[in-house]
Automatic annotation (TrEMBL):
Residues 9-297 form the FAD/NAD(P)-binding domain. Its EC number is 1.8.1.9. The gene is trxB. Coiled coil: none annotated. It comes from the Bacteria. Homodimer. InterPro entries: FAD/NAD-bd_sf, FAD/NAD-binding_dom, Ferredoxin-NADP_redctase_2, Thioredox_Rdtase. The keyword Oxidoreductase applies. GO terms for molecular function: thioredoxin-disulfide reductase (NADPH) activity. This is Thioredoxin reductase. The keyword Protein biosynthesis does not apply.
Length: 314
């Protein structure tokens, strides 16, 4: 069956702060962008309750509501926002060939990747049930809500140490749940948490259950050497075992680091492929904040606009 091939100037893959900001800039530049939302429209912020660190919202805002605002703003300037999942790409020549939901084919002159990253979770039922009710994968985003309280964090890498140190500044006590008797973190980060009187490291420990009905009340951990279980009273539970960028479908064309984050030319959103730009958490494993994602979305749209202007006469 011959399907009609659609041609677009700017195709945006993904719909978090990066994708929507790229859409706002591209549509205001008259480029009629088409944006596909992906499997989680609005991205990671849709599973965040209160966002209090995004400029311009003095009273804070709910994550899903904020993403709805971003979407409305993009649509107001003419972005064609569509629900669908990009399932295949071919960036070997221009226009790029992109397949959506295994059935729609789009030829795009430029493509902006803003597919984000997903937090890795422990995979226990109570973690899912209490997500947003005391369970979080971002201490910088949500630590503030637990000011002066006791919390726990799971993880043993640099990010976990960094987040534990951050939490120790605002919480009365931080329990760090570490699976082995050593950490993966760099020595300087390990020293920082070990020398912090507010952080207690629980070695050889794993999470058995997060306790609480409506909100987090505690955590039950077990020692994987002795099998001994114990319960700790906490009101916040943070998971810092890493993020996975949602970039697998681009692997054959776009340069990535070993973790799958897309490499961009420093100071730009350009990838190694002509006319393909990356923004947001798909290419940022350092900051991973809504406001930095939005900033790189702006960069990607401006880079795409300049690319199109330079290639108009070719």
């Amino acid at each position: 069956m011959n399907q009609e091939i659609e041609r677009v100037k700017v195709l945006i893959i993904g719909s978090g702060p990066a994708g929507y900001t790229a859409a706002i800039y591209a549509s205001r530049a008259g480029l009629s962008p088409v944006l596909y939302t992906g499997g989680q429209p609005g991205g990671q912020l849709t599973i965040t309750n209160d966002v209090e660190n995004y400029p311009g919202y003095p009273d804070g805002i709910m994550g899903p509501e904020m993403m709805e605002d971003f979407k409305k703003q993009a649509e107001r300037f003419g972005t064609d926002v569509r629900y669908g999942m990009v399932t295949k790409v071919d960036f070997s020549s221009r226009p790029h060939v992109v397949t959506v939901d295994d059935q729609v084919t789009i030829h795009s002159e430029t493509t902006i990747i803003s597919t984000g990253a997903s937090a890795k979770w422990l995979g226990i039922e109570s973690e899912t049930r209490l997500n947003g009710k005391g369970v979080s994968a971002c201490a910088v985003c949500d630590g503030f809500f637990f000011r002066g309280q006791e919390v726990a964090i799971v993880g043993a890498g640099d990010t976990a140490c960094e987040e534990a140190s951050y939490l120790a500044n605002i919480c009365s006590k931080v329990y760090m749940i570490v699976r082995r008797e050593e950490m993966r973190a760099s020595q300087i980060m390990q020293n920082r948490v070990m020398n912090n009187p507010k952080i207690e490291i629980l070695w050889n420990s794993e999470t058995d259950e997060i306790l609480g009905e409506e909100e987090v009340r505690g955590v039950r951990i077990f020692n994987n050497k002795t099998g001994e279980k114990k319960e700790i009273a906490i009101s916040g539970f943070f998971v810092a075992i890493g993020h996975q960028p949602n970039t697998e479908i681009f692997r054959d064309f776009v340069h990535m680091d070993p973790s799958g984050y897309i490499k961009t030319i420093p100071g730009s959103s350009k990838t190694n492929v002509d006319g393909v730009f990356a923004c947001g958490d798909a290419q940022d494993n350092v900051y991973r904040q809504a406001v930095t994602a939005a900033g790189t979305g702006c960069m990607a749209a401006l880079d795409a606009e300049r690319f199109l202007a330079a290639h108009e006469n070719h």
